[in-house]
User: Fold these one by one.
Assistant:
Number 1:
Amino acid sequence: MRPTVHDIAAEAGVSLATVDRVLNNRPGVRGVTRDKVERAIEALGYVRDVAAANLAKSRTYPFVFILPEGDNTFMRGLAVEVEAARARSAIERTAITVLSVPAFDPAALAAALERARGLAPAGVAVVAIDAPEVVTAVDALREAGIAVVTLVSDLPGSTRDHFAGVDNLAAGRTAGTLMGRFLGGREGPVAIVAGSMLVRDHRDRLDGFSAAMAESAPGHRLLSVVEGHDDPAEVERLVANLLADHPGLAGIYSLGAGNRGLIAALEASGRQKEVCTVAHELTPHSRAALLSGTIDALLNQDAGHEVRSAIRVLKARADGLQVIAAQERIRIEIFLRDNLPVDPA
Amino acid sequence: MRPTVHDIAAEAGVSLATVDRVLNNRPGVRGVTRDKVERAIEALGYVRDVAAANLAKSRTYPFVFILPEGDNTFMRGLAVEVEAARARSAIERTAITVLSVPAFDPAALAAALERARGLAPAGVAVVAIDAPEVVTAVDALREAGIAVVTLVSDLPGSTRDHFAGVDNLAAGRTAGTLMGRFLGGREGPVAIVAGSMLVRDHRDRLDGFSAAMAESAPGHRLLSVVEGHDDPAEVERLVANLLADHPGLAGIYSLGAGNRGLIAALEASGRQKEVCTVAHELTPHSRAALLSGTIDALLNQDAGHEVRSAIRVLKARADGLQVIAAQERIRIEIFLRDNLPVDPA
DNA sequence: AGATTCTTGATTTACGTACATCAAAAATTC
DNA sequence: GAATTTTTGATGTACGTAAATCAAGAATCT
């Protein structure tokens, strides 16, 4: 049987109340006594029964999630995952409020962060935009004692507690190596389509891709980046233009969202088999394109993992506990047509 | 505030005891009354507080894990993860016993399964060998009311409850596509090194690899499979022979364990850069080889995920609950040198 | 030494559920 | 309609921790 607080009290020769004071950092315990209790805890290998503790505290965690609006499937999927987390609120003792803001609009995001502060939550999760006013708003939250986790896109200049997302530099590098090796010495320029250079994750992916391409396919020409703002219609227009302007186009790296447009433009051109295409995020559209051969490789971040990780970290921070960094690292998933999960995720 | 059993009793106009009888399927409730209570549960959206329930039950789950002995890093890593789960026993209310058996020995495995039955656990997790006597032993466990989960390697002919491992056919296909595309039309035969055709996972990987190679690099010659029994020393000997016998060797697919030997032989030959190598399982050795370029791509199954998933499934089965299949699907991870996790896992 | 502050003990209630017991009420059988 | 069985109610204890209260003891200061 695992030891309880009673066992500690007996072992240390103190009362239950004193054990409680030590365990919960309450004042009124002499250093000597505290040591005695801590030695008993150590000796018995006591671990607090979290379930019982939560039951006794009947604690709930009010959190705010700030997500961008927009038509792209990835962000909508993220919203779905947050909704799923909301549905688990009762059982997880969370109370989640969702705020929607226009995409790629730093001022609107900063305003939403202010609004979140007014709700006095225990923590905030936000898809960040890398802009000074956003940094200021995040730091204000932190100073108000509210935990902040950036989601999907990071804000390195701020005092945010944690980033729940993938290493986008590594993701870009991975895409670059795959592209370089899949091209295998083939000639022709490679195009890059981004969402916006305003968000950190897209900038990082671009840097990583360029570096890895330079290593795995030295001398290969990269066209200058075009920005599609994660909007399928805009992406379709841009890619159609690229295909028209560069008859010898060898590859396309789509590092943002809006893959529906990318796929439509490629398939309209009839050149989907000769253009090596690497894209991000597994959606029903990109999944179908991978199976049909229009897309050659897909990098993915699991939105569900990210949301659940963000909540775990926010909870831990709210309780003043450490998180195990390694456990909260979000993996970059690579999908070829052969290893797609069965359910369209 | 979320509703409790008291709220249901009030809503349904019955006593607490009756609600308890309904919730826990105890006898002595009329159909009409049962309906009334169930309607109240529905109306209030009651969800049982699992933490409180477990606390009240002070339930523990005795489980047995059966793992193969042997010198290869993957299985040792699996054992470490099981040990880690054992360390969490107190907090997870499990009591885990580990049985070690000689690798690739169906008779010994069947005997261990018999022994496990004698321990009368709630569930058994086993790295299976695809043999009739093992099927018989697993089925005997199931008939004794003990849940069985196969781990890493499956046993499709048996009545096991669940398989906690990757889709090895898909893993083999993925390796085949990567190999085919990385070779990019280069000539020369491709060698395949397996552990043993006795275990299901190796057979599946081989089938998948052959099929995908035929598609992505049609007409490429595959040498016949050699078996290294997941033993580094034996694998080293075999690979050295392969390299000597085939000066034009273009690629090696190592679908089992014992990568230390593979790497040693490749590097001793000095041909590690010209031979495209795809292997399985991320270990400190394979990680270093991926970074140095000796290995070109690595497929991985996260042993920690598999062990934790196996425990979740066993618990659910012991409680007679459903598992969400999608949630327990173990992903095939693909690592290139660019997306390696920071910690040597 | 006496007053004051700090430290500790003893005890109680609460969290939400599980489970057992005994008595009372209702339904069923003869 | 009495006897029997089935169903329901009332109540209490337990799980392990949190948190509060009040009294008693020890240490510190003057």
Number 2:
Amino acid sequence: MTERGRRPVARKAGTSLPSRPPRRTRGGSLDLQAADEVVRHVAVLIEKGRLRPGDRLPAERELAVELGLSRPTIRAGLQTLAAMGVIESRRGAGTFITAGPPRLGAGPLSFLAALHGFTRDEVFEARLILEVGAAGLAAERGLPALLAPMAEELAGMFATLEDPQAYLLHDVRFHQAVAAASANPVIQALVEMVSTLVYEERRSSVQRAHDLKESAEMHRRIYQAIRDKDPQRARAEMSRHLEMTRQAQAAEEMSQMVTPSQLVESEFGS
Amino acid sequence: MTERGRRPVARKAGTSLPSRPPRRTRGGSLDLQAADEVVRHVAVLIEKGRLRPGDRLPAERELAVELGLSRPTIRAGLQTLAAMGVIESRRGAGTFITAGPPRLGAGPLSFLAALHGFTRDEVFEARLILEVGAAGLAAERGLPALLAPMAEELAGMFATLEDPQAYLLHDVRFHQAVAAASANPVIQALVEMVSTLVYEERRSSVQRAHDLKESAEMHRRIYQAIRDKDPQRARAEMSRHLEMTRQAQAAEEMSQMVTPSQLVESEFGS
DNA sequence: GAGCATAGAGTGGTCATACCAATTGTGGTT
DNA sequence: AACCACAATTGGTATGACCACTCTATGCTC
């Protein structure tokens, strides 16, 4: 208990500037939090197509006068958009609509996991449903252009059987390639979000790899099923592979999920 | 274009207070954005179990002195956490860790959809994969306690065949109940997030309902399959149901996805 | 004239301070 | 005992200022 602000003080009437308008209710719209006005404003611009990925937003000081709000309020709104991954700010340069492939940050899910005590199995189960579905779709479509990346990572896996570190990298990328091959950006984003949470096995589970050869073979069967446009087989192979991965990971109690505090440095930092 | 700050001014050396420390690099940790320090701090407290859902955070002014940061910076960090749905602030009361069932805001996904032009079919496809998976899990488990809510909403549907408005409400809740019956909070959260994006059909698609009876029957078959612990049938029925819904919705071009600007008022407002 | 260094404007990040608005708990009044 | 008014607490917004970084355009050098 600090002892501040104890005196009766003297903040009575008319000590300083008496003239600032008391926050005008903006034109017609119901008076939601002023900061959300910024979010809404940007949202509308995006919906209208006036703002596209990579575009630069007006400077904060400009937005402030445009919307009739103070800069801190503008910053509060932009902070929200940044947290949602909609925009990215670069000091000295400006604020930009996030470019690159559609991504959903893993932060919110990670916090949810920490707060509600999600088990690794629960997260893995969600991953299984998503990735099995993605593999099925990829097989149904079987788009050649999306097949190549998978094949490349597959080759990389067989080429690095002796180097668990490098192997895992190809492993992760293979699964991302499968998600991409679903040709559905929503599923792709969801897969990446959930996968992120379960990929802290990297130094523990795969390090002293016991059967990378076996793992690579499973990936090859998944690839072949997709290439052969056999959805049912693709689903089955992916399901079997993930189930085995889950058990392997459960066996070694070392592996942990990515915690929120770790994400702060990876997602936001750098 | 205002005319401020035009004169050469005089901000040369040592005009005013020369003594404020230039942002001390906090103890040991790499110097990430100061605002992220707040996010990290709260994340650590959550991981340690010191902060649980419903708990109240220290006042902003207290956090400021605790972390050695200014209040605006603290607010920036809290804004990020609020955007991720981790905390909720109530003016005059304080800031609290979000309570209630695990939820993943639809905002980020909605923005992604608007920015990258996701089609309704793509979102629906993701929904199908998730809900079919959820139905399968629900059938595998078949927990009686989670069966009741589904049955109730089902009854509600049959009871409101003449009132499309009320019917849709039960419809939505039934699907949420199925997701809950998966007994997997991750899947439940994902289902809700994706479903939200596609539920603006409410006034258009179902309004002048053509065959609510048929729809209710499909839901009943889904329920029965889950009750009978028949995963394969549950998956098939859910898949058929959603596919039919998708076609019905595609037929009427009126239905739209929830846009980001709409979400600003529903998620944040009120 | 071409290339390169540099100064300056522009922009996001942080800070300090103040006041407003809503909530809540407390103490006095009825 | 119930109710109401007041004051402290706390989040929301506003000003104004300065710092750190980026980018560009100017002007200098070669």
